[in-house]
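Today's session is about reading a structure prediction critically. Students often jump straight to the picture, but the first step is always the sequence itself: look for stretches that repeat, for charged clusters, for runs of hydrophobic residues. Only then move on to the predicted structure, which in these notes is written as discrete structure tokens rather than atom positions. Here is the chain we will use throughout the hour.
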Amino acid sequence: MIELYESQRAMRNMRRAAMQRGVVAILDVGSSKIACLVLRFDGTDPSDDGIGSLAGQSGFRVIGAATTRSRGVRFGEIHSMSETERAIRTAVQAAQKMAGIRVDHVIAAFSGAEPRSYGLAGQVEVMGTTVDEQDVARVLSACDAPDFGHGREVLHAQPVNFALDHRSGLIDPRGQIGNELSCDMHMLTVDAQAIQNLAYCVKRCDLELAGLASSAYVSGISALVEDEQELGAACIDMGGGATGLSIFIKKHMIYADTVRMGGDHVTSDISMGLQVPMATAERIKTFYGGVVATGMDDREMIETGGETGDWEHDRRTVSRAELIGIMRPRVEEILEEVRVRLDVAGFDHLPSQQIVLTGAASQIPGLDGLASKILGQQVRLGRPLRVHGLPQAATGPGFASAVGLCLFAAHPQDEWWDFELPVDRLPARSLKRAVQWFRENW
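Below is the predicted structure for this chain, in token form.
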């Protein structure tokens, strides 16, 4: 944990340095595509004078964008290092060529890696009359990290609420007068191996990693409008190999999880059900897919096509109703899994229960209607926010996490490694604390 705290601090400093130079690359490593955006900043460095997702905003524009088919990534995690490295190099080089500039630093997002959310709380006495930076650092370090097990790393650790002498709901307590400061923090841990593989892969591409984020988190930043982030909403990012889920309230993420199923599984079902290659199944899904059958669908025939050389086999046709019959059970299964995760998170207790579907697989016709039946809430389809300079081809739901990563890079939310924590008070010092207690009491 101490090593992770130091490495996250180093990445934050690297991001700051890259932004001062004016250029940083965004890398969204997904199961179906790898997207790279090159951002140019206007030179205003976001200062650390605010806590929250909109603290220290800085203007940027996209000057280069490229996507390539993902290789070597399954369920949002790297399975073949050399193939993923080639795909990342292809995307980054194409984006650099479009931007006409070389990029050294990248900020990456990934899904998968079995995320787990924890809610932590800490409380300290204020040293002086007003709360200062040191008091915030002390209260963050007073939040006791749970024993999340071997082989896990903290990806995000964000203060979501401050309270000062019974006044709760404070966004930034610094400069306010009070005696007792308490804090609620959301901690997201992921499988350490997945992070290390991604970091190593980026390094092999001769790039410096200047930040890491969860795809579920950054998709929520870009797909949820400000009111939804404030009042409470869930963002479901349906990707190719995994479906990310994040819950926001008061502009902070309070829960994240991943379902290891996505659009690729629907394509795979079509491929097996119709006995066609994966590429043909993807084309049929894109052009004719759906989840709600009507009376017309029995009469609408789809040519499967093929290049087997067997004329009879290649000239087969299937009805659209048949196709929907193959797709619907898998989509229902994904949404049922999401429903289970929402129930575990206690989503029913939020004041507003808006659900926003985004990601490339959310474009299946009729999905929002089916989702509202299964999830039992108000459901809408979400597209990423408009970003200056973004090409038209990159404005669809499939680019929600890439656009969210741009916003995350430009004005990141404060996390506990942004503060100078007392070294002996770093979370995960349970053994140190036990030794100290023995010294003082025996």
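Discussion point for the tutorial: The radius of gyration is 23 Å.
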